[in-house]
């Protein structure tokens, strides 16, 4: 309780580390060895001590307080070790302080660094009244504030570490040097110390290492199924093998080292191999882990499932081939109930069965068509009474169907009546015009095959220049532009399509041509209304008008179209065959107007050098467009124009031969399959 102390030449100690190592720290003497005491911190241990009675301690403290009070110096009671404090001891200490006049109590914990500064600053305020009064905070509230402060400092420090440390191979000494000047590092070290800062760094590095290993592991496991596919794709080879035996089997494969690497030290994730980024092969000891075993089992199951699915496909195909309910053209919805069972649904999606069914339908439809064609050949006498180029009437089609109706080959196409009727029409054209183009077997007609073989093996010099013409793919195609505003072009296009077969083919002189129509009603300089496109090369143009305005549109469009090709290499639009047609307005019977339009049309036709058709010349009644006869006449004219431009050649190279061997004639007649080289080569050599 003395207020004056004297201890000459004594060192001032700042921390316990100085004890025994004084020479390593700053040597600072106490001033003159004399010290005046300005106040007292009276400490009370409120923890449960060994062999110590708190009541005895409190009695000693009470006696000590009585001595200190005589000095008239400020006193602050400090409760220490509150982090392990006993509630009764703390309560009794507060009761003791309350019994004394103006005695303040501060609850502290040196270990947790809670309220230590507060204890001293409270005493300083009592000594120096000019200082502001210090607010005394209870231990648990101060501990909460301290924890929040440490947590905030820890978050900032961890952010600093994560920003600086990106590699799991970083060392503490190197990183510590980099962080010295950072306030985040300084604040945390001040609160928690260097050792805890280092501990957090080591935890971060360990986490980086584990993440790196996990990325490598995932990469290896992702490659493992591919390795299995490459090395052990055969189910029969591995179906009953254990994982250990499979590992031995893998080592015997020629490409084993392409996929795996055998390390001297294991496990792989505890070796330097984790940092060998250039080598992406799978460590072989990974096969001993559970995820690898699961992947192997999945590979095995996949092979078994693939085999089962293949068996289901075969079984389904066999069902299709043997089922009497599956007929050509039968929709999937009708066939499904006859051929599907629970096993099929278990192993494959319905879309796969639909695809198989679609391919099967295609096969049986083609076969049914071939058999129906044979049937038509057997009943050729049914078609002899038809007029040339005439479609059979409904009555004649009825007779044909009645005669053939009992035949199974006729019934087989019951669900494909439109295609069956088309085959009958095609057969009629073949009967009256038996050429390779109308042949039912086209494009594998024997005539075409022999012509191709002869032309490819035996080409005379005079034929060489015509070779490209003979291979023209547009020989059976007519591309027709229909020009007319206010719906005229679309209306005529629809009327022409109504005269075509189901597959847009048109018959001219007994031969079937593919007819492609391009109606144009707008500005021909726009790409959408252009006469030609990359896939459409016009062979002719029908120009329709029914008024002065529509006639002016036709003239302007033709001139614009011709102007657009002047100077270009592909300027055939300048010579494009044109046909100008006057189309009657529905309900318009004014003879004077009609006569005026005819005269104007004739003048324009003369100017454009094209054919002119009018209703009066063709005997067409009012309210109708051009008839089928006129359409055939126009299309025949286009074909003649194509021939004049050498776009079609009807000369067959086989006719250029001086003689035709009898064996070829026999093959053409009977239709049996033959080896063309065996028959043709001797002929070619003799020629």
TrEMBL record:
Question: Where does the UniProt annotation locate this protein?
Answer: Cell projection; Cytoplasm; Endomembrane system
List each copy of the FF domain by range. Answer: 150-207, 309-363, 365-430
Q: Which SUPFAM superfamilies match?
A: FF domain, P-loop containing nucleoside triphosphate hydrolases
A Pfam family per the record: RhoGAP-FF1
Which BP terms in the Gene Ontology apply to this protein? regulation of axonogenesis; regulation of cell size; Rho protein signal transduction
Gene Ontology terms: cellular component = cell projection; cytosol; endomembrane system
> What is an example of a GO molecular function annotated in this UniProt entry?
GTPase activator activity
Top-rank taxon? Eukaryota
Q: Which CDD domains match?
A: pseudoGTPaseD_p190RhoGAP-A, Ras_like_GTPase
Q: State whether keyword Repeat applies.
A: yes
Coiled-coil ranges per the record?
293-320, 358-385
| Name of the protein in question | RHG35 protein
Species in which this protein is naturally found: Smutsornis africanus (Double-banded courser)
Lineage, broadest ranks: Eukaryota, Metazoa, Chordata, Craniata, Vertebrata
């Amino acid at each position: 309780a003395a207020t004056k102390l004297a201890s000459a030449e004594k060192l001032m100690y700042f921390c316990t580390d100085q004890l025994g190592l004084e020479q390593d720290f700053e040597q600072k003497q106490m001033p003159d060895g004399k010290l005046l005491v300005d106040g007292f911190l009276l400490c009370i241990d409120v923890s449960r001590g060994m062999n110590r009675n708190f009541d005895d301690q409190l009695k000693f403290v009470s006696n000590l307080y009585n001595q200190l009070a005589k000095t008239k110096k400020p006193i602050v009671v400090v409760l220490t070790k509150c982090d392990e404090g006993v509630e009764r001891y703390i309560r009794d200490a507060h009761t003791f302080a309350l019994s004394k006049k103006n005695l303040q109590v501060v609850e502290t914990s040196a270990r947790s660094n809670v309220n230590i500064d507060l204890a001293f600053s409270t005493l300083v305020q009592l000594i120096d009244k000019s200082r502001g009064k210090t607010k005394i905070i209870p231990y648990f509230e101060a501990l909460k504030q301290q924890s929040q402060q440490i947590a905030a400092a820890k978050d900032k420090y961890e952010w600093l570490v994560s920003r600086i440390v990106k590699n799991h191979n970083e060392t503490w000494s190197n990183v510590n040097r980099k962080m010295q000047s950072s306030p985040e590092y300084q604040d945390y070290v001040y609160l928690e110390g260097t050792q805890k800062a280092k501990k957090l760094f080591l935890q971060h590095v360990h986490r980086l290492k584990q993440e790196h290993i996990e990325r490598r592991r995932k990469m290896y496991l992702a490659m493992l199924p591919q390795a299995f596919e490459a090395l052990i794709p055969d189910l029969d080879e591995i179906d009953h093998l254990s994982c250990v035996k499979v590992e031995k089997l893998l080592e015997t494969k020629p490409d084993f080292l392409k996929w795996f690497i055998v390390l001297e030290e294991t496990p792989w994730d505890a070796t330097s191999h984790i940092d060998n980024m250039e080598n992406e092969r799978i460590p072989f000891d990974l096969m001993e882990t559970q995820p690898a075993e699961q992947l192997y089992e999945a590979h095995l199951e996949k092979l078994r499932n693939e085999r089962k699915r293949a068996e289901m496909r075969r079984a389904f195909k066999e069902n299709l081939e043997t089922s009497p309910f599956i007929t050509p053209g039968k929709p999937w919805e009708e066939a499904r109930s006859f051929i599907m069972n629970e096993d099929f649904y278990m192993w494959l999606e319905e879309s796969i069965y639909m695809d198989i069914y679609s391919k099967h339908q295609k096969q049986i439809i083609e076969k049914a068509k071939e058999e129906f064609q044979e049937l038509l050949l057997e009943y050729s006498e049914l078609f002899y009474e038809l007029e040339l180029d005439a479609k059979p009437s409904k009555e004649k089609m009825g007779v044909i169907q009645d005669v053939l109706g009992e035949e199974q080959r006729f019934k087989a196409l019951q669900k494909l009546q439109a295609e069956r009727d088309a085959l009958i029409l095609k057969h009629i054209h073949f009967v009256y015009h038996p050429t390779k183009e109308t042949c039912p077997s086209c494009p594998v007609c024997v005539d075409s095959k022999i012509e191709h073989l002869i032309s490819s093996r035996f080409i005379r010099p005079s034929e060489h220049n015509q070779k490209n013409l003979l291979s023209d793919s547009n020989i059976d195609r007519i591309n027709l532009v229909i020009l007319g505003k206010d719906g005229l072009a679309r209306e005529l296009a629809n009327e022409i399509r109504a005269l075509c077969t189901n597959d847009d083919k048109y018959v001219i002189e007994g031969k079937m041509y593919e007819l492609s129509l391009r109606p144009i009603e707008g500005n021909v300089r726009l790409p959408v209304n252009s006469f030609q496109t990359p896939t459409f090369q016009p062979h002719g143009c029908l120009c329709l008008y029914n008024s002065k305005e529509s006639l002016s549109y036709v003239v302007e469009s033709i001139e614009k179209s011709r102007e657009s090709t002047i100077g270009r290499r592909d300027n055939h639009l300048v010579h494009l065959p044109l046909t100008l047609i006057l189309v009657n307005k529905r309900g318009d019977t004014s003879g004077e107007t009609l006569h005026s339009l005819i005269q104007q049309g004739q003048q324009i036709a003369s100017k454009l050098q094209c054919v002119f058709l009018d209703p009066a010349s063709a005997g067409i009644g009012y309210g109708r467009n051009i008839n089928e006869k006129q359409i055939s006449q126009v299309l025949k004219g286009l074909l003649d124009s194509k021939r004049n431009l050498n776009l079609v050649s009807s000369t067959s190279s086989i006719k250029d031969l001086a003689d035709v061997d009898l064996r070829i004639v026999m093959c053409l007649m009977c239709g049996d399959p033959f080896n063309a080289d065996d028959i043709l080569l001797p002929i070619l050599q003799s020629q």
